[in-house]
Amino acid sequence: MPLSLKDIAASLGAETLGDASILVDRLAEPREARAGDLALAVAPKFAEHLKTSAARAAVVWPGADIGELGLEGAIVAPRGRLAMAGLTQMMDDDPAFEGLAGVHPSAVIDPTATIGEGAEIGPFVVVAAGAKIGAAARIGAHVSIGRDVEIGEGATLHAGVKVGPRVRVGNGFIAQAGAAIGGDGFSFTTAGPSGVERAIRQRGGAPMDPPEDGEWHRIHSLGSVEIGNNVEIGANSTVDAGTIRATRIGNGVKIDNLVQVGHNVVLGEDCLLCAQAAVAGSAVLGPRVILGGKSGVADNITLGRDVVAGGGAIVLSSVPDGTFVSGHPAQPTHEHRAGLKALRRLVQR
User: Fold this and answer.
1) 263 is catalytic
2) Contacts of 317 by beta carbon, 8 Å cutoff, 6+ apart
3) 339, 325 in Cβ contact below 8 A?
4) For residues 317 and 128, what is the distance between their CA atoms, to the nearest angstrom?
5) Residue from 220, 263, 334, 336 carrying the catalytic annotation
6) Model pTM?
């Protein structure tokens, strides 16, 4: 349904330039924009693309001259990406759940499960005994929800999500396709000292003798997972159940695709974990910690509030509040960069 620039700007709390009555029905990148599109040109670097496009309207940066850009109307966005968040939400027609209404006849729902008012459950979904699905939740095709699980109001579980027993999920939760929550943690032990224990104690370069008993004995996960409100978990990411207590994910946490969160981990509010990051068992991350792509956090350490680990960083020891770390092993980024510069100078000599 087409929207006017005036209405869009009002919903964003933004200002308009030129003709605010122009109607748009789609978002587009500047170089691909057609006449009925709203081009996203939130920085001056997009100016030349706008000039050669067919766009009549765009989201522009403060101080942009719409006449020079060949536009008839515009929305001014002081913070471009924040405007994109509102715009993409407004324009999302949600095709993944198109046509879903009520409970699909192929869904298998235990008689003791509770389905909240207005919840939508897709084909081939399995809901186990004692589970509770909150009001207005949306459960995509082939989702599996385990025994005594609680899913909050307005949650969205995309196709193929797996939720293990006793998991607790807050309101507004989103899990992308293939996410697995509440599986057993990776926890094993040996009867005698394991290879890892012996390697740590090893002195000198002599090879280690084989252990007397190298069999791995499984430590079962009796805890579960507790997830706060407005949490998002990306496609094919995994959150392991705790061993005795629950693995805990705080309100507002955002987890990218292909991320591993180990057993007993605690993630503080509003943490952000980028693709292929991994957090080992019993690590504790304070509020607003950011883990860059392919970064790793060792087990049983603590990252303070507002810590940032750059892409590929391997964090092997606890990090104090507000520290930006990089490298392997991770160290304060200014030290890491200074070391790389010194090494480069040394090599050049």
Assistant:
1) yes
2) 298, 301, 329
3) no
4) 41
5) 263
6) 0.88
